[in-house]
């Protein structure tokens, strides 16, 4: 039927300050990144344009 994907990572204590994620499709970065910035007790997701991305393997 369908396929499900999951992404997991180790817990990083600095996540309390917010995080940014860049999506890569077929080796190319999607021109927007997702920034989750804490606003009180709840993080708020904001889409930001990507100015420059260096992919590191």
From TrEMBL:
InterPro entries: ATP_grasp_subdomain_1, GSHS_ATP-bd
Keywords: Ligase
Magnesium found in the keyword field: no
Domain Prokaryotic glutathione synthetase ATP-binding: start-end pairs: 2-40
Pfam families: GSH-S_ATP
Enzyme Commission no: 6.3.2.3
Superkingdom of origin: Bacteria
Enzyme category, top tier: ligase
Molecular-function annotations in GO: ATP binding; glutathione synthase activity
UniProt keyword Ligase, yes or no: yes
Name this polypeptide is given: Glutathione synthetase
Originating organism: Escherichia coli
